[in-house]
Amino acid sequence: MNMLTTHRITKWVNSGYGRVFLLRDINMNIARGEFVSIMGPSGSGKSTLLNVLGMLDTFEEGEYEFMGQPVHKLKEAQCSDLHKHNIGFIFQAYHLIDELTVAENIEAPLYYHGVKQSERKAAVADILDRFNIVGKKDLFPSQLSGGQQQLVGIARALIGKPKLLLADEPTGNLNSKQGEEIMRVFTTLNREEGMTIVQVTHSEKNAAYGHRIIELLDGMIVN
Question: What tens digit of pLDDT does each residue of 39-68 get?
């Protein structure tokens, strides 16, 4: 069964010279339990596509079905609800909350899901240990390096055990050892827990962890 299906998704912005297309006629099927890598040069539409799939951005034309729900027909609040309960998103720019500690940032999704405090604390402790950032739990984002902030962002995306993980250059700010460890974590989640993963990456090495690669060029799928 498909986790998501898109049919001729097209997105543009208006400029003084007319429409500038960010995505054109995107047709894709991603099955539940798949691990897919999206590659392409800078400006090819990779992050835009990921934001559309995560319902963080809209599109002008086409159809998008997520877990049997017609996203293109849903209201904004319904899309937000679908995202909140099913999708984990790793942002290239972290998007951590400056006023919250590392532990509080990671805990936030569980808080919004109404998980009991004792269960939240146990889950946070477990994932802090998994990413070797226990010693950073009481620090604020401004006190962390870029790589450490990236690890916190990844931990936050994974703590709710989402059905779909969308990752935008998840190892971009990590050293090679940390990057390999994150890819191993992704592989384990995909194989053992059946998590569907879609990652955007410039790294052919990281892309190879996926079951298949989708290549974008000028907002269009070219393979």
Answer: 999 999 999 999 999 999 999 999 999 999
What distance in Å separates the CA atoms of residue 209 and residue 137, rounded to the nearest whole number?
Answer: 30
Residue 121 CB neighbour total at 10 angstroms: 14
Decide: helix, strand or coil at residue 31: strand
Number of residues written out for the chain: 223
186-194, long-range: CB within 8 Å, 24+ apart, which pairs?
Answer: 186/35, 187/35, 189/158, 189/165, 190/33, 190/35, 193/161, 194/32, 194/33
Chain center to CA of 153: 10
**pTM above threshold 0.85:** yes
Between CA 186 and CA 169 the distance in angstroms is 13
Nearest-angstrom CA–CA distance, 102 and 177: 22
Domains delineated in the chain: 2-221 (3.40.50.300)
Q: How far apart are CA 186 and CA 182, in angstroms?
A: 6
34 exposure class (CB count in 10 Å sphere: 0-12, 13-18, 19+)? buried
Whose CA is closest to 180, among 208, 152, 144, 159? 208
Query: Helix (H, G, I), strand (E, B), or coil: what is residue 219?
Result: coil
